[in-house]
Design a protein that fits this description.
This protein is of the alpha/beta class. Helix content is about 35%, strand content about 15%. The protein has a domain of about 325 residues: Crotonobetainyl-coa:carnitine coa-transferase, domain 1 (Rossmann fold). The strands form 4 sheets. A 7-stranded mixed sheet has the order 8-14-13-12-9-10-11, sandwiched between helices. A 4-stranded antiparallel sheet has the order 4-3-16-15.
């Protein structure tokens, strides 16, 4: 289902050597090993295609399924100066029983979303107070109230209930991802260099996990990535240690005209513009795909949303955990792997986030290859909900096979898959790239840096 997006036959998968064994790999019924292997194999094939375009030479590609699954929670395996970097969620974030036996998910990791939920509930930042308040609400009414307050979360649904929802129907009408030509421009030869994406410039205006994983993946194949964020935007600093490998990072405040002009200048010299805001959010600043292709004909626009660009929830905020809650994933996980308390559970990875990031990177590379061969400006468009649907569409591991599944990988495996980088914050131990390429092994030429660490300028090609 991935390779046809590039107009490639499915048999092309056979060019990738797969090792590591089948699902279940961790404690979830969902085929996270199979899905992550498929997504990363597609990334490897796209990188190899660009390399062949440059040199005429093919290369061997390999993916280990267990290592691929580990990459779906790479933030759990960070050590800075020998101490673990905590990925713990805010204590208020989680599932709560509501009226009539329903459950509600309150997303509260970011301070603005936490404040929105607490404001609706009328309680302080205390889990017990939130529990008492949610118990008085109808879960659907609470979902709508929190969304109206510019928060995030939702009523927990079963898969059957989600299948009947208008937004599920809208997502079903879409392919896994779109790679579409949206403008004309002459073919552009790939810049010189010794890696698949050497000389390719990527503007990364994404946040949290999925979009930043896309840009991190492009960086590991040689792209120059410049992450753009702003000091006033809420962030979880530890995530940059996970998704910041290979990137420069600069602050621009798009409320300021001067900074908007700086970003326009950067976009004129970019090859890829990746954004992960809700559909239309950047349009009033002049950075819609339609505006970007006029500013820089031949640009590849990569656009991520939570629930897709069509349907009643097209403009709704969402995260991996929100999609899990509303689409039946958390309900099913809780049935098969109950927690300390009854109710829905998250799967033990951030599968939708990281898978979406890998798919975005695949789409961007396919679009760059098309630009080189036939020209044009391109749009790569995907949502977390589309990826979630694809993951569920792979089916579940039979329940009989879910007994005695380990909680984690062995220390020997994690050590073999890890590397260290010297960052401005100290010595960082983290997972290495998963895909193995025989001629251009993926690597990051820059360490992760704090947000805003660099000036908003492109490095020399």
């Amino acid at each position: 289902m991935i390779l046809p997006l590039a107009d490639w036959p499915q048999e092309r998968e056979r060019a990738v050597e797969i090792s590591g064994g089948p699902d279940p790999i961790l404690r979830t019924p969902f085929r996270i090993g199979e899905a992550s292997t498929a997504a990363l194999a597609a990334v490897g094939l796209a990188a190899a295609d660009l390399w062949e375009l440059r040199t005429g030479r093919r290369q061997e590609i390999a993916v280990d399924a267990r290592q691929a699954a580990a990459s779906l929670r790479s933030g759990h395996y960070l050590k800075l100066n020998g101490s673990a970097v905590s990925p713990e969620r805010n204590a208020v974030m989680g599932f709560y029983p509501a009226k009539n036996g329903r459950w509600s998910y309150v997303h509260a990791n970011f301070p603005n979303h936490r404040a929105a939920a607490l404001g609706v509930l009328g309680v302080p930042e205390d889990r017990e107070a939130v529990r008492r308040a949610v118990a008085k609400w109808d879960a659907l009414e609470l979902e709508e109230a929190i969304i109206a307050a510019k928060g995030a979360g939702g009523m927990v649904r079963t898969m059957a209930e989600w299948a009947q929802h208008p937004q599920a129907a809208a997502v079903t009408s879409l392919p896994l991802m779109e790679i579409v030509r949206i403008g004309d421009s002459p073919p552009e030869k790939l810049p010189g260099g010794d890696r698949p994406l050497s000389g390719i410039r990527v503007l990364d205006l994404t946040r949290v996990l999925a979009g930043p994983t896309c840009a991190r993946t492009l960086a590991e194949h040689g792209a120059d990535v410049l992450k753009i964020t702003a000091a006033h935007l809420p962030s979880l600093g530890y995530q940059e240690h996970d998704t910041g490998h290979g990137k420069l990072s600069a602050h621009l405040d798009l409320r300021e005209k001067r900074d908007v002009e700086i970003l326009r200048g950067l976009a004129r010299e970019a090859d890829v513009f990746a954004q992960g805001y809700r559909p239309g959010t950047l349009a009033d600043r002049g950075f819609s795909p339609e505006a970007l292709i006029k500013l820089r004909p031949g640009i590849v626009c990569v656009s991520l949303s939570a629930f897709g660009h069509v349907g009643p929830w097209a403009s709704r905020r969402g995260f991996d955990t929100v999609v899990q809650a509303v689409s039946g994933i958390a309900s099913r996980q809780g049935e098969l792997f109950p927690g300390a308390a009854p109710g829905p559970q998250f799967y033990p990875v951030s599968a939708i986030d990281y898978l979406t990031g890998y798919l975005m990177a695949f789409g961007a590379m396919v679009a760059l290859a098309r630009r080189a061969r036939e020209g044009g400006s391109w749009l790569v468009r995907i949502s977390l909900a589309q990826t979630g649907r694809w993951l569920l569409g792979r089916g579940e591991v039979p329940e009989a096979a879910l007994k005695d599944v380990p909680k984690d990988f062995t220390p020997a495996e994690l050590e073999r898959w890890s590397m260290t980088s010297d960052t401005p914050d100290g010595r960082l131990q983290h997972l290495a790239p998963v895909v193995r390429l025989s001629e251009t092994p993926p690597r990051w030429s820059r360490p992760s840096v704090p947000l805003g660490h660099n000036e908003p300028v492109w490095p020399a090609r």
